[in-house]
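Quick bug: Diaminopimelate decarboxylase output formatted oddly.
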Amino acid sequence: MVATPAARPQTNHADQTDPQTSSLQYLRPQSEAGPEPSPNQLLMPLTARVNDRDHLEVGGCDVVELLEQFGSPLYILDEEGLRAACRQYRDSFTQFYAGESQVLYASKAWSCLAICAIAQSEGLGVDVVSAGEILTALRAGTPAAKIYLHGNNKSRAELELAVRSGCNIITDNWLDLHTLASFSASEPIRVMVRITPGIECHTHEYIRTGHIDSKFGFDPTQVDEVLEFLAQQPHLHCIGLHAHIGSQIFELQPHRDLTDTLVQWFVKAQQLGLPVAELNVGGGLGIRYTESDDPPSIEQWVQTIAQGITTACDRAGLPLPKLLCEPGRSLVGSSCLTAYRVGSQKTVPSIRTYVSVDGGMSDNPRPITYQSLYRSVVANRMSAPCTETVTVAGKHCESGDVLIRDAQLPALETGDVLVVLATGAYNASMASNYNRVPRPAAVLVRNGQADLILERETDEDLLRFDRLPDRLQGLS
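Here's what came back:
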């Protein structure tokens, strides 16, 4: 446990500079009254403040001091923001759904012991997609009965681990089913069937999973055959059905459409005598990465899902199933930021100015992979006016290693602390050692205390798995 200095008194900078021309524009006004905001709708972490040194604080910890203590780049995760998102999902289902429910954390967004432990402590289960994610969830204290294994190409070893541990398995294809059918298990194996619903939504093509042309799930034309197969497998206990339409979605109607489709298949499964009792609607709720992003709140999303399932079940004369969902990005995405040190600058006359930081695509591959947009602030001069338009570039030997194009920022100097917002989802989990750069550390902050949850890799870590054959040693 590593403590940082106690939180300093907060300063109202509104009388010092127009917040619309400084980094203060991204902060939530502290005068806001009413219910707790939905974290996925915020650009900054829930607890973000500015202290009397004009520094950004998160969780009562000075971001500049965190970088001095733990090094750069650094992932900084706001524990209260993460817990608030967990609570809002959990409590919204209690409010809007009369049946049983279970929220699962889609740990592919960021799988580590600390985040899984927080999710478990808030009553969530965990959605996993590999043996490593199974082991992480188990080690973090998640009961196996609340772990659900996904994957379009699960290995036999991964399936064996899931069965041995007592996890639920979401079958994605015929290989899953035939492999599981070949197992001899002392207890029935709990499985769900993932079906591709054929529902389009507006998001990046790489993260759209509900349309027919997807590598995930059984095609709707296969559903009858799959359910009939399961009806003939006494040790495969089909507990329910699953569908997922994509990620970073701002529309509610596709999710409402999904509930109708799922209930129709649920009726078919019951007609075949399968013991189905659960429906998993996936996740996909988007977060705010830029000012123009306007995602629904967690409560609005849950209400849409709950009302859709309730209406469809009433129409079909069915009792309410256990309702599951598996958010990832909307739980952890907005609660984390990444802090860097500013290094070199290059101005191309009449074109652009590049400002380079000491990280880039190795700690955030989303811009080069998905053309993702981000916003940034200067943590050591929060009220400085944003007078410059620059391109924030990474340090890697790749022309496309650009974090933000045309960022509105103050005039920057070498050594400034540049923070990129909303980096909790698919940043640490997709990080790499490109150019043999060690992956960053991560800290969890709350009430003025910072705890290391991921150690920074060292140069020796980069060489740990290298092997030099004897015949190559000593060659000049």
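Actually, after a second look the formatting is fine. The first strand starts at residue 2 and ends at 3. Closing.
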